[in-house]
Each structure stands twice: as C-alpha cells, then as structure tokens.
Amino acid sequence: MALPVFSSDPLSSVAYATQEMMLVLALAGAGAFSLVLPLSGAVALLMVVVITSYRQTVRAYPHGGGAYIVARENLGDTPGLVAGAALLIDYALTVAVSIAAGVAAITSAAPGMMEHRAGAALGFLLLVALANLRGVKEAGLLFALPTYTFVATILTLVLVGVARCGLGVGGCPQAPSAGTSLEAGGALTLFLVLRAFSSGATALTGVEAISNGVTAFRYPQSRNAAATLGIMGVLAVSMFLGISYLARATGVVASEGMARTVVAEIALTVFGEGPGFYLVQVVTAAILILAANTAFADFPRLASVLARDRFLPRQFLSRGDRLAFSNGIVLLSLFAALLLVVYGADVTELIQLYVVGVFTSFTLSQAGMVLHWRRVREPGWQRASVLNAAGAVTTGVVLMVVAVTKFLSGAWIVVLAIPLVVLGMRWVHNHYAEVSLQLRAGVAEPEARRPHHAIVLLDRVDEAAARALSYALATSPTSLQAFAVPLPGSDVERRWRELAPEVPVRVLQGADQRGTVEALATALHAEAERHGPGAFTTAIVPETLSRSWAQQLLEHRLALRLKARLLREGGLVVTDLTSPEGGPGPYTLEEPVEHHVVVLVAGVHKATMRALAYAQALRPTTIRALSVNLEPDRDGLPMLAQWEDWGVDVPLELIDSPFRSLSGAVRRYVQRFVPDGRHTIVTCVLPEFVLEHAYHQPLHNQTALLVKAALLFERGVVTTSVPYHLHLGRDASREVEARGTS
Q1: Cα maximum dimension of the chain
Q2: With 0-12 CB in 10 A as exposed, 13-18 as middle and 19+ as buried, what is 695?
Q3: Which structural domains are found in the chain, ordered by start?
Q4: Which of 127, 154, 217, 594 has the most C-beta neighbours closer than 10 Å?
Q5: Cβ atoms of residues 473 and 481 within 8 Å
Q6: What is the pLDDT of residues 480-518, one digit of tens each?
C-alpha cells in the first residue's frame, strides 16, 4: 500500500513532464524537438541521483527524515525553516498541478469539457480532500487500483510503441500532429534549453514524500522505505524515458492550445481511437487527480511537526476522529483551490511556479545529510557522504537553473513567498516563546484564594434561569445579583421576585442585539472594576439546550455574541450553563448535592494556577486537575514533577487518549460523575488567554473552544472560562532573543 500512497505523485508526473519540456522547445520551432531525448536523459539521470541520495536519508532517519528535520538538525533553524516553507508551498502546487493535469487528460478525450475544467478541478479536489479526511488507510485503498493500473497501462503503451517504432514490428505510426508546421518564435539559445530542462524536472516532484513518511511503513521501516524508493525510481524513469522516446519517434508536435496532451497523442497513435486510447486517458486522469494524495499525506504531517516545534499554530497538531491531521488537510485544500481558480486549472501556467520549492528542499536535505555522516561516522559513512554530496551539488545547480529560467514566468512568486513564510514561522515561534516566558516567570507557587462574586444574566425567567441561580447559590459567592435585559412583553422583575426575592436584579435596556451586548458588557465590567483585581467576578450565562448545533447557533445569537465579547476583553470569568426546556413555571431553586470541579491542564504555569484558584473559590464537593495525553508514547512524569515543584495541593490526573481526541477524552471523563443537572453537577474550568491583538487569537484558545463545544450538549456539565491576560511587548521580545542567543 506504500507505493500508491507515497509514490503516486512522481509516478504520475511522467504524464506531463515530457509535454511541458516540449512546449518550451516549441518556441524555437519543430527542429528543437531533437533535444527531447538528450534532455530526458539528463532528467532521468538527475532522478537516479536524487533517489539514490534519499535512500541514504531513509536509512539514517528511520523515524522520518524529511527535508525540514534533516536540514534543521544538521544545518540549523533557518535552513530547516527554508526547507519546510519550500515544501509547504510545493505541496499546494503539487495538488493544483496534478488535478489540473488530470482534468487535461479528460478534456483530451472529451474536448467539450474544456470550458468547465476549473469547476471539474475543484470537484475532484473536494473528492480527494474528503478521502484523506477519512484517514490514510482508506485513502490507500482508494488510490491503489488507479496507481497500479496506470503503471501497467503506460508500460504496455511504451512496450507496444517501442516494439513498433524501435524493432519495426508492424511499422512505426505517425502521430496526428506529425508534420505540423511550427513557426519559431525565437532562436534555440542555451537559456531556452535550460528552461526546457527545468520544465522536464517536474518529473522529480514527490520523490521526498517517502522520507517524510518512513514511520508509516511496516517494520523494518527504513529497509521497506528504501525498497519502495528503488521501485518507484525504476518505474518512473522507465515510463518517462519511454514516453519521451515515443513522442520523438511518432513525430508528436506540441504547441500551445493543442487539443490533446502528448500522452493522448501517443496513445491515439499506438492504439488507435479505440478502447486502448480511452483506457490510457481514464487511468491517466485518475492517477493525476489522485496523485494529489502524496501532498495530502505529507503537508499535514509536516505542518504537525512544525507546530510541535512551535513554528506553526498548535491547531495543526490536532487529529480528527479518523486520526488524520484535519486542519492541515483543510488548509492545503483551500490553498490548492485558490491556485486552481486564479490560474484557471491551466497546467502550463501552474508549472511556472513549480519545482523551485522541491529543489530547494532537495538541496538543503542532501547538504544536511553530508554533515550528518561526518558527525556520526558510522561504517560506510564516507561512501554515503559522497553520494549525498553529489546529490546536494546536482540539485543545487538545478535549483539555480530553475530559479533563473522560470523567474519572470512565475517562479518569482515562490522565490518571494518562501522567505515570507519563514518570517511568519519565526514570528509564531517568538510569540509562543514570549507567552511561555511570561507564564513561567517569577516565583513558582499557587495563587492565593480570592473572593468570588457571581452575576446571573437573563432576558426572561425560565427553567434555565432557575438552574443558573441554583448553581450560583451552590458556589457560595461573596455577593450574588442578576442583570436582566427583558424581552418585549416579559415581566422579568416580578417573576424574579417570585423566584428569588433575596437576590437583587438590575434591569438594563438595549435597542437591539448590539445595544444589548454593549449594555451588559459595560455594566459587567463596571462591576468587575468595583470588586477590584483581587476578586473573581463571574458572569453566568444560562441557555436553553436546543436540539441541534444549527438551532443552537440560530436561537442563541445574543448569548454567543455576549460570551465572545466578554472572553475577548477579559476581566470576567464566563460560565456557560445549559439546561433542557422547562414548562411555563412556577420554578423552584434546587441546589445540587454534589458539585465536582475539573480543571483542564495543558501545562503547569500561571494561567493554570489562576484557574485552580478560581476552582477553589467555588467551594465544590471535589476538585481535581486533568491533563489529557494525546501522544501515548509521551511520558507524563515531567508534568507531575512540575506539579510538585509548584506545590499544588490539588490532585493531578493524567489520562491517555488512544484516539488522540482531547474533547472526546474530556467528555468521557466527566461522564464518570453521572451528572444530571440537579443532584450532581460537574464544572469544567478552562484557562483562556486574553490577547492584546486580534491577530494573536488564532494561535490560542482553539482547544478550549473545541472542548466547550463537545460539552455543550452534556447534561449537568457547566463550562467556565477563566481569563489570563498576556502582556506581550518589546521587553519580552528582547528577553526571548537574549535567551535564544545565550
């Protein structure tokens, strides 16, 4: 299963590599096609060098040795980030080019679809993305048959064509385009030849995929990965040289706007307009469209590694319910869709942006391997070092050729994008370093207990309001009151006095939803300022549980806007309490007998200590901290040691999530208490960061959002967000940089 999953990209590249090379040579007239075979031989030799070099890499890095890991470990952070950025960009281009080329194969057999190629490309992109969201095993099963059928069909085409043209069996037929006059647009210069070679080098895209995914192979991983690389190389070189030979032997003339692809011309010439021709088009379209799977396998994996090293947002570490890195798959799909729309799914236009990224990563990876062998000096290191040095020099020269010859045609976009992505990753890393520095600076000790003031928010008196007030009373707050923004025609004050005459209610007015949110937020912040920073002020938002997510979003827009506003501004603890629909009343107050508080812990730092201090202020029946380990192989002892160092008197429980689902693990944990909303209630306390700038928001609090969404429909479970302000400035940045250089 490894060959179709990791090798579909380089195997399918042979379907358009020869064509793109010929389209460049066509600028000098049909006579320039005499260079097709020499240039193809040079590309094939380059492929052999690169594959041989990467076989050394997979043996040296049995746990995955992609260009980012190898370059960063051996050359440093900046070369590693350059390699990572280049690969991320190239993976997006791989998806766009593969799918566009697949659609081109379809339009060769059905020319009427030409004007709909962009829409068809987006449809196929959606299909591949959904397949990958289901997980690599299902994706491998889906892609195995087209890959093996494509290889068998193209090799059959090559063998039959070589037998007829090379051995003279039945005579060598001529392509429909043979003899077509082609007006030269310029002279055959060295620059044009090098540009044609650069276009042909697209046959090498995807070669590095196996080195990124060594851990996905069966044991022994390194040997199986190296064997797969060898098989892939033999097949790719054979098909590429065979197609190039037949294109020259049958006299195919490639030109802009040609009705059929070069492979389609060869198939029509060798097999005639029959089942063989259409089979070639179908399997070529299938493998090209599904070849995007190579990028879908590696882009999310590389993004997760960069996120682990804190160069990308932490969300890229999250796996979906099928154990796929869903966020990376979605982001890759969006980038590829943008490229397909902007360039109209035109392969020739997209090719101009291609290859720069992949040869950048090739060069840095092989250069890093040279230093690796010199450092480890294990048996045979001299030979391995020479092989990787040859690979680094060769790919480095090709990179310069590609960058120069394709620069004005579109490569400048990638040349500019790579350093911009590197700067972005540096910015993310520095931000996370500043946050870590602030959270762990100063004396490591728990926070002192604080007074707790509760405010119930409501627009009517119903079952949800009654349960919210019952919950507030159970927490024994220092003070308790209600803020009400009545619905038209509702007598909130009278009904509140009937429910809780001893709890004061303050009626506010708002002209519309925005005015209501503004009035409540202003009053709440004024109350928090009156209590001072030495106390907790909690806004309790009661909601009636809807039947579905769509209904919840539609019917509770005011509550959602208010909670988002309060969490964004900070200063108040926000508690969300949902309850099922009740009757018309009257309602009664019923404090829960058991109140269990669970504090979610991602790390041992000041935000966690504040959340624990708030949890203790609730005076619950029991209180415990919970940390979910999403990587079962990771040892939890360091966190336990830090917990003891801080001197926390709340027990910390570490649980593993075998399915790597944080929200699922938390939901199953709170269900152990059997909460029913009346006798037993569980409060899940989540520390959340309050950020000074909106552009920092995507880097934080996304996990808390997922947990709250998962617990929304859990009966008897209350979610509470405890804010912690992050003050990030120049002083913190200078301290981070100073620590990094010390």
Answers
A1: 104
A2: exposed
A3: 2-406 (1.20.1740.10), 443-589 (3.40.50), 592-742 (3.40.50.620)
A4: 154
A5: no
A6: 999 988 877 778 888 898 888 999 999 887 656 677 888
